[in-house]
Design brief:
Strand order of the largest sheet: 1-4
Number of strands: 6
Number of domains: 2
Helix content: 10-25%
Number of helices: 3
Structural class: alpha+beta
Distance between the termini: 69 Å
Radius of gyration: 33 Å
Largest sheet: 2 strands, antiparallel
Shape: elongated
């Protein structure tokens, strides 16, 4: 294990200290670490650059129904407005499906 931060991370008028560390093993793909002043009065930020394998992500999309109380009530209301006589009164299943 080794610390990759080599510069002070805390700077106040009377003291300069390296108080933040980034520890890694020697096989780590860290290319470099640098300390960056981002405007905080007494503390700097650590920036780590690494070399990693580029992963190819596939996007998966799914559509899901939201079974909320309001959605179920709306579904029932819309079903009640449909005329089902052609479906109910048909003796042939295939024709009944066409009416549906």
């Amino acid at each position: 294990m080794m610390n990759t931060v080599r510069s002070p991370t805390s700077i106040i008028p009377t003291t300069v200290s390296l108080i933040d560390v980034i520890i890694t093993n020697k096989d780590s793909p860290i290319l470099n670490t640098e300390v960056v002043d981002v405007g905080f009065p007494d503390h700097h930020t650590q920036l780590v650059r690494t070399d990693t394998e580029k992963k190819i992500w596939s996007t998966k999309t799914s559509v899901r129904r939201q079974f909320t109380y309001n959605n179920i009530a709306e579904f029932k209301h819309l079903l009640s407005k449909e005329a089902w006589n052609d479906v109910y009164n048909c003796s042939n299943v295939n024709i009944s499906l066409e009416h549906f």
